[in-house]
Write a structure and sequence with these properties.
- The protein is of the alpha/beta class.
- It has six helices and 15 strands.
- The strands form three sheets. It has a seven-stranded mixed beta sheet with strand order 1-2-3-4-5-6-7, covered by helices on one side.
- The longest helix has 13 residues, at 47-59.
Length: 224
Amino acid sequence: MHSKVLKFNLTMLTIQSFTFNGFAENTYLLVNNKKQCWIIDPGMYDATETAYLDQYIADNCLQPQAVINTHTHIDHIFGVQAMMDKYKIPFGIHEKDQPVLAGAVGAAMLFGFKLGAAPKPTFFVREEESLMLGDDEIDVRFTPGHSPGSVSFYYAPGKWVVSGDALFQGSIGRTDLPGGNFDTLINAIRTQLFTLPEETTVYSGHGPATTIGNEKMYNPFLQG
């Protein structure tokens, strides 16, 4: 079931947050001033949640351009195929997350969820490259450790980053799932996220937003 919708007004792009499915996963819409949008990590599990996001898109006259995922654990991909089918848009992930995506049906069963088939990516995003949503440039940062192909999306003009499940308020992503590695994740956070300005807002895959400065100072996993 869906919960609150948060809207943050930013410099050029706006970002809307929705919370879906039994994992309380954060799905994001990135929207430019032409109403073009990306759907990041669509986690809608059932028809009610999907209809809720569709209605938001329709009410705001948005034009979805792509589904782009930070990673492919089941709670972040439940709604991918529905978005691809309805809006006839491509689906992008980092190539190194393909094994995680390939195991999604089995993972869903393990956690008591149903997933008929895993969606198939139509393009790959790569670290240290820029993606364009209209005239707006978003940097891709490689942040593996929670999964082998996790990436984060950094938008410098708006001073924010979508971190997926790499970094949370006061915590980090779990590393005990297949392809996870604690040391890899800590290194990725330190080199790819903690090098961002401290005022950078972090929009995570679960839970509330935080800032880079706050996590540097208080996150117990990243002290010392």
